[in-house]
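Following up on my earlier thread - several people asked me to post the actual chain instead of describing it. Fair enough. Here it is, all 109 residues.
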Amino acid sequence: MENQTVIEGKTVAIISYITWIGTLIAFIMNKDKKNAFTAFHIRQMIELSLFSLANSFIVARYTGYWVYGSINFLLFVLWIIGFIGVLQGEEKKIPFLGDLFQDWFKGVA
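Reply from S.P.:
Thanks for posting it. Predicted structure:
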């Protein structure tokens, strides 16, 4: 990735990691600029947000709190991996389904 692209998109990419509201704000801010670095991290946060919603509404309802809490911890670790990637100016994909979600949501951000 070009250094200038990373520098221009880093602030908005950081905003995208502040809950789903930050992701929505970053999406709106990136709508006109179309920064590739920012778009990558917005897609990463869409993935984490979807998994978090599924964990909250499906897993928490039908399993015990140990399973729910374990998945929440895993999601937090994945969030840290993504956040460190944005701070370092890297497009570090979240493990497991990062490639798949980048492909599915390439038209979103």
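The chain has one domain: 3-104. That should answer part of your original question.
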